C-alpha cells in the first residue's frame, strides 16, 4: 500500500514538473519573439560591454588569439606556475 502512495505521489510531481516545463518553454518562446518599441534603431546592438572602446564604438579587431595546446604543454605550464608560486616551497606537510 505504501508503494502505491509513493508511485501516485511521484507521478503527480512528475506531471506538475512537466507542465511547468512546457509552460516555461511557451513563455520563453513568446518573450523571444517580442519586439521592444523603446530600442534605439540607429544604435548598434552589442552583446557585451567589453566589445566597446572608450568612446562607445564597436571594436572590430579580435580581442584574443589562442593557439591550441597539447595536454602535455598545458600540464608543463601549470607545473611551472605551481613551482614558481610563493607558497609552493614554504608549506610543510604535517
Structural features, described:
This protein has 94 residues and is mainly α. The protein is 49% helix and 0% strand. The protein has helices at residues 2-33, 71-84. The radius of gyration is 27 Å and the shape is flat. The N and C termini lie far apart (56 Å). The mean pLDDT is 82.
**Ends apart, CA distance between termini:** 56 Å
pLDDT < 50 runs, ≥5 residues: none
How much helix is in the residues?
Answer: 40-55%
Question: Using only CA atoms, what is the Rg?
Answer: 27 Å
Largest sheet: none
Number of distinct helices: 2
Mean pLDDT: 82
Backbone structural class: mainly alpha
In terms of DSSP E residues, the strand content is under 5%
The total count of strands amounts to: 0
Q: How would you describe the shape? A: flat
Order of helices and strands: HH
Question: Which features characterize this protein?
Answer:
94 residues; 0% strand
Quick overview of this protein structure:
This protein is mainly α. It has two helices and no strands. Helix content is 49%, strand content 0%.
What order do the helices and strands come in, and which of them pair?
Elements: H1 2-33, H2 71-84
Amino acid at each position: 500500500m505504501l508503494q502505491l502512495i509513493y508511485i501516485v505521489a511521484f507521478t503527480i510531481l512528475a506531471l506538475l514538473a512537466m507542465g511547468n516545463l512546457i509552460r516555461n518553454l511557451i513563455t520563453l518562446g513568446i518573450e523571444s519573439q517580442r519586439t521592444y518599441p523603446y530600442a534605439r534603431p540607429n544604435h548598434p546592438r552589442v552583446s557585451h560591454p567589453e566589445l566597446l572602446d572608450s568612446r562607445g564604438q564597436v571594436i572590430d579587431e579580435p580581442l584574443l588569439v589562442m593557439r591550441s595546446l597539447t595536454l602535455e604543454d598545458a600540464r608543463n605550464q601549470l607545473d611551472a606556475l605551481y613551482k614558481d608560486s610563493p607558497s609552493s616551497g614554504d608549506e610543510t606537510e604535517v
